[in-house]
Amino acid sequence: MLISQEIVLPCDLRLPNRLVKAAMAESMAPAPAHDPNDKMLVAYKEWAKGGWGMLLTGNVQVSEQYLGGPMDVLSSSSSGDVEKIWKGWASTCQENGTPTVVQLNHPGRQSPLGAGQRGFFTKNLAPSAVKLNFGSSLLAGVASSLLFGTPKAMTEDDISLVIDQFVAGAKLSFQAGFKGVELHGAHGYLLAQFLSPKTNQRTDGFGGSPAKRAEIVLRIIRRVRQATSKEFCIGIKLNSVDASSSDSLADTIEQISLIVEAGIDFLEISGGTYEDPKMAQQNETSSITAPTKEKQSTLQRESFFLSFAQMIRVHFPKVVLIVSGGFRTRIGMEAALQSGGCDMIGLARPAAVLPRLPREIILNESIKDVDATVSLKPVILPKFYSYLHWLLPVKIMGGGYGSMYYAGQIQRMGDGLKPVDARL
Ligand SMILES: Cc1cc2nc3c(=O)[nH]c(=O)nc-3n(C[C@H](O)[C@H](O)[C@H](O)COP(=O)(O)O)c2cc1C
């Protein structure tokens, strides 16, 4: 099986198998410090026992002013012993030898009201002053204005500061003993906002062409490499481009080419934004059963973004690709790897329900292929919320509600409880 084979990243980091616990914001680090606390460590202790090839942490915010959620971890924490706390976190994650990579993020225009130490009238930051669009209704506009507001187009000084903040986050991760960082360039957060012409309408050195829109990312990658070491892993999570996306495939390929040249160790493919949360879609409603190897269409249904990854593979045969989103069966995972479309499989919601999924099921040879599945019961939006569809589209509320449900499972782990076994 390819799933159980080790892989060595360009930075020489050796991963024992192909299963990655994908990033999930733990929502367990309260203000004011936003440090990874003991409860979080209890949860990571569980994943450390899971037999994963690599752990990705939940997104760690680089700016104390702008968080993705009020309980996010912060890499610029003001607590005095932050390095000691982070060393404890890194060693807990890696106590059984699982390499762990910290995901670094800046939410840009997707920082909701109340998430971050900023005044009530301080605007979110973004490449251009383009507001989130939750739909055409008047109330959707009001919801977007109240929750996120119209962002401020960043000055060059703002951009320099954000680059410094990413580099500081990487340095802290490096010094703490983590094996690398992943830049969050997906899901409509700040780096994704820069990459996309829909949200980046600048005409200076950071916008106006695919290459200039990628400039902030390239600078971060180069500076992180300088500030750490050639053995420190630098990955990036990017969104796929599909028919419903406003980004052009050719532009995205040009940007990936520059990012690869700047020196990355892996590229994780995902998709979706707050406006269209494709990453939070649920394939379980149709009940995933183990596909046979011949059934390519079933495989495409299981994995949300594999076809895009397969296309990227054609252009970048040597880049280590992780695809995250929708994988629920060993046969589906193995077929995706065998197809050559990716090198590693990212799993998020299944990892919140079964923290030891690789060891107990996917890599457990005593479980037959057809039984090695983790179909999860769909998380149903309570009826009350669906009455609010005139305020926010149901898919947006459903995505948020589903994330809250799974964050709740991580919090159960932090309390020393088992997550609710929500398998079908
Ligand atoms: C509770 C929760 C929190 C998440 N937080 C993050 C995050 O911090 N960073 C990120 O890149 N993706 C985040 N995601 C998205 C997942 O990494 C993944 O892309 C998505 O859930 C699809 O994978 P899955 O079908 O295996 O769950 C989160 C998902 C969930 C359920």
UniProtKB/TrEMBL annotation:
Pfam families: Oxidored_FMN. Residues 14-361 form the NADH:flavin oxidoreductase/NADH oxidase N-terminal domain. SUPFAM superfamilies: FMN-linked oxidoreductases. It comes from the Eukaryota. Belongs to the NADH:flavin oxidoreductase/NADH oxidase family. This is NADH:flavin oxidoreductase/NADH oxidase-like protein. GO terms for molecular function: FMN binding; oxidoreductase activity. The keyword Flavoprotein applies. PANTHER family: BINDING OXIDOREDUCTASE, PUTATIVE (AFU_ORTHOLOGUE AFUA_2G08260)-RELATED. Coiled coil: none annotated. Keywords: Flavoprotein, FMN, Oxidoreductase.
